[in-house]
Write a structure and sequence with these properties.
The complex is a heterodimer of chains A (about 270) and B (about 550). With about 270 residues, chain A is mainly α. Helices cover about 70% and strands about 0% of the residues of chain A. Chain A has 15 helices and no strands. In chain A, helix 1 packs antiparallel against helix 2, helix 2 runs antiparallel to helix 3 and helix 12 packs across helix 14. The two termini of chain A are about 30 Å apart. The model of chain A has no long low-confidence stretch (mean pLDDT about 90). Chain B is mostly helical. The model of chain B has no long low-confidence stretch (mean pLDDT about 95). In chain B, helix 17 packs across helix 19 and helix 21 packs across helix 22. Chain B has a 6-stranded mixed sheet with strand order 2-3-1-4-6-5. In chain B, strand 5 and strand 6 form a beta hairpin. In chain B, about 60% of the residues lie in helices and about 5% in strands. The chains are: A mainly alpha (about 270), B mainly alpha (about 550). At the A-B interface, helix 9, helix 10, helix 11 and helix 15 of A face helix 13, helix 14, helix 15 and helix 20 of B.
């Protein structure tokens, strides 16, 4: 096994291993299955089996109803990007049906569930303003949902979320604060992102990430379900390692340092959880 | 009218509007909002007052290089600036916040000039104007332009120094001005002790050929000597514990004081040596902190966690700026080769500015990383320009400009909502609201009775000195903390302070109840139960804007 392959394996193993150790096996399975379907979709797509690849995406809500919005967003993404209109209309209808079938399980898990405390805060804050217009401009029901969406969205695009489990001293509440990728993998990830357009099927990677990002942002708690992003983010990271390999001659030293730090990170995980 | 003259006139007009916008966002209720005066602000104000009246600070030290204050050794530039203002405005909250305001405003045109100087010709003027417009209502920059924080003053000197450096490449005499500005920036704020030398090093390396050419050599050496002379007082105390107090107190690499996060105490031996390796853990923490300054989550949503270094419901940037930031980053990296000196400056500052903040424990400390506002604002500006260029038809361009104006108005309303309304209501206690009212109330009470002020949760002596405008000479005489030869080295603190008839100390009920006197404390120090239990007479209560009790003044009945 070359050093590059070791780097790739170490980069990808941390998130599933951490998630497995932090949860009961059956729960882990419910988080891992959507991700596996996503990986299957990517695999089938690059093999040219597009219909089958889209079908694997449509299966996700049946495994995890919280992700019922994902297929719809994914198909919309393909529609915008690829303009495969005929196929996409059928898929759009199917993903809508999927959403409706899973509506009950989905709705209660979203940011749109009534929040009594937030509403009370809106009422309290509106009393402070000299003008009703100004009060309503900044404190209203829509803003409650918008703020929750923003909180999720920005947490999901935060590099600290993926490489450091947010901040080392950030208090663990509803979030397991898992280290998802080795922290010295940041250069690979950024380089992969920077050169994403050079990746084969990069559009699919981007659509998978963006639809996952939006589908998770509407959830009241995205923790653990965010494992579906392991596939697109992992693909970008691996692409970064590959590009790194082409672009930098003196890469071996960094690979070694990275591997050493990643092994310590994995060892710490095993020691803590076992 | 020539086209060039017309462009110049439009530029001056936009710059005038921009500076006016900056003044509006910073000067409105300056000194009144935030209501209250934090102990550091009052401490700096009284140190300046003491220097003005006696030539010594409150500890009796003549013209200190760093001010002992709460043994956190405050940087000197800001305090000497306040000293100069007290004869004009008096010792008020307005005065102690005025230097922040004025240098924050001056930074706006300096930023324009700097961006124009270092950008490619076509981009310079537009990007300079957009950058200065964005900074004029930037929540990050506005906050430190309304309150007493040294970082804004330091940023002005830093930006001016870099601007004169670039000017100095063409006109070498200006290297002297650059050296003077950068020389002042270093002692002006703690984080500039790292950022400025780093930037000087990088600028020198990049332009070494020009700087060491015969035309520039003499001015380079003269500038270095001038900078050295300005820094001489700072260098003379640079190794003292006082000077290093902030760095050693907050440094994440200080393993003795703060073990790195993630230590597993049950693991020892060889395994412990590997997985509890302090270098590994600290490197991880440093990188986590470093990247937190580049994280959109912190920039656009969370902001600074500190209640005095942020406004409620407002981050360091407005959320609407996020897409332009991303597009700006894309544009920047895509066109990096054509951006010349702008590329160098933005990248250098983007990478250097988080370092001093990232070596301290606090996540996303916007005070320490303030220079980061410059490259990030430039990137947002690039995004806005690139977006505008996407609009092909004239009507779209007009609509785009109109939308930008609407967004500015909305952002101003949001600033008003956060700074003037929500901050006042919910964060008055963090700004130590109430001491002015306490002092006013004490002045109306029986002057023959002594007063004891509790210090369990705060050290209000600086605020009492400030609002009483207490004679510095008397205070110096009656309160001895350390001898002057140990001013920068001895970290011991005085627990009991005498301010005329007022004593600040920890309340000792057994002692305090023996004689007739006034007691001052918060609602925990003097609770309803204690008033009843000790038979105290409630003289006055000071309330926070949210209606809760801030302080109580009671009289003992022995």
């Amino acid at each position: 096994m070359t050093l590059k392959k070791i780097v790739i394996v170490l980069s990808l193993i941390l998130w599933p291993l951490g998630l497995f150790l932090a949860n009961k096996p059956l729960d882990f399975l419910s988080y891992a299955l959507p991700s596996s379907l996503l990986a299957l979709c990517y695999f089938l797509y690059i093999k040219g089996r597009r219909n089958l690849s889209f079908l694997s995406i449509l299966a996700i809500p049946f495994v995890e109803p919280k992700l019922a919005l994902f297929p719809l967003l994914f198909v919309a993404g393909v529609f915008i990007w690829k303009k495969e209109r005929a196929r996409v209309f059928v898929l759009l209808a199917l993903s809508l049906i999927t959403l409706l079938v899973n509506w009950k399980g989905f709705r209660g898990q979203t940011i749109f569930t009534p929040d009594y405390e937030a509403r009370q805060e809106v009422i309290r804050n509106t009393q402070l303003y000299p003008s009703i217009f100004l009060a309503r401009l900044f404190h209203n029901k829509a803003r409650i949902y918008l703020n929750k969406f923003d909180d999720n969205f920005f947490a999901l695009i935060d590099p600290n979320n993926y490489f450091f489990g947010f901040h080392p001293r950030e208090i663990q509440v509803a979030n397991q604060n898992l280290d998802k990728f080795p922290f010295l993998g940041i250069p690979f990830f950024l380089y992969g992102l920077f050169r994403l357009s050079k990746k084969k099927n990069w559009e699919l990677t981007a659509i998978l990430f963006v639809s996952g990002l939006l589908a998770l942002s509407v959830l009241s708690s995205f923790d653990r379900n965010d494992f579906i992003l392991w596939v697109p983010l992992g693909l970008i990271l691996v692409h970064g390692v590959n590009e790194f390999n082409f672009s930098f001659r003196k890469r071996a030293l960094y690979y070694l340092v990275f591997s050493l730090a990643a092994i310590i990170q994995i060892a710490r995980l095993l020691v803590i959880k076992l | 009218m020539k086209k060039e003259t017309k462009t110049k006139l439009i530029t001056i007009l936009i710059l005038f509007v921009t500076v006016s916008l900056g003044i509006l966002t910073r000067f409105y209720k300056l000194g009144e909002v935030p209501h209250g005066l934090y102990l550091d602000e009052a401490g700096q104000g009284y140190s300046a007052f003491s220097i003005l009246k006696t030539g010594k600070d409150e500890f009796g030290m003549s013209f200190p290089v760093v001010f002992r204050s709460f043994t956190d050794f405050k940087t000197p530039v800001y305090i000497y600036l306040i000293s100069a203002l007290i004869p004009v405005f008096g010792l008020t909250a307005f005065t102690v916040r005025f230097p922040s305001f004025i240098f924050s405003i001056l930074s706006i045109p300096v930023l324009y000039l700097l961006i124009k100087e270092i950008s490619p010709n076509k981009l310079g003027r537009t990007l300079g104007l957009i950058g200065s417009v964005l900074i004029s209502f930037s929540p990050w920059h506005v906050l430190f332009g309304r309150t007493n924080f040294e970082c804004n003053v330091a940023l002005f000197f830093f930006l001016s120094g870099v601007y004169f450096f670039y000017k100095g490449l063409k006109n070498p005499k200006l290297l002297l001005a650059s050296a003077a500005m950068l020389g002042i920036a270093i002692p002006a704020y703690h984080s500039q002790r790292l950022i400025t030398p780093f930037m000087i090093g990088l600028l020198f390396l990049r332009h070494r050929k020009k700087l060491t050419s015969t035309s520039h050599r003499l001015y380079l050496i003269s500038g270095a000597i001038l900078g050295f002379i300005i820094l001489l007082p700072t260098l003379s105390v640079a190794t003292t514990p006082g000077f290093l107090a902030r760095a050693s107190g907050l440094n994440i690499f200080n393993f003795v004081k703060f073990p790195p996060p993630g230590i597993l105490p049950d693991i020892s031996g060889l395994l412990g040596l590997i997985i509890n390796n302090p270098f590994y853990l600290s490197l991880k923490e440093f990188l986590a902190l470093y990247f937190s300054y580049l994280s959109p989550r912190n920039m656009f949503i969370l902001g600074d966690y500190g209640p005095r270094s942020s406004f409620p419901e407002l981050s360091t940037y407005f959320v609407w700026q996020f897409p332009f930031y991303i597009y700006g980053l894309w544009t920047f990296f895509k066109n990096m080769r054509n951006l010349g000196e702008l590329k160098f400056f933005v990248l250098s500052l983007l990478l250097i500015a988080p370092i001093p903040a990232a070596v301290t424990r606090d996540p996303y400390s916007t005070i320490r990383a303030l220079p980061l506002v410059v490259p990030q604002t430039i990137i947002i500006g690039l995004g806005l320009i690139a977006f505008y260029q996407l609009l092909r038809k004239r009507i779209y361009k007009v609509l785009g400009l109109l939308a930008f104006v609407v967004i500015i108005v909305y952002s101003l309303a949001r600033l008003y909502s956060s700074v003037i309304i929500l901050n006042e209501y919910s964060r008055a206690s963090f700004w130590n609201y109430g001491w002015k009212e306490v002092v006013t109330s004490l002045n109306t009470l029986d002057p023959d009775l002594p007063v004891v002020v509790d210090i369990a949760r705060s050290e209000p002596y600086s605020q009492i000195l400030f609002y009483l405008k207490f004679d510095p000479e008397t205070y110096q005489r009656e309160n001895f903390e350390v001898s002057l030869d140990k001013y920068y080295t001895d970290m011991s603190r005085l627990n009991v302070r005498k301010i005329g008839r007022i004593t600040t100390k920890h309340l000792n009920w057994k002692e305090e109840l023996k004689k007739e006197q006034y007691l001052v404390g918060d609602s925990l120090a003097i609770s309803d139960q204690q008033i009843e239990e000790h038979g105290l007479s409630l003289i006055d209560e000071i309330y926070y804007p949210d209606g809760s009790v801030a302080f109580r003044i009671v009289k003992t009945n022995p």
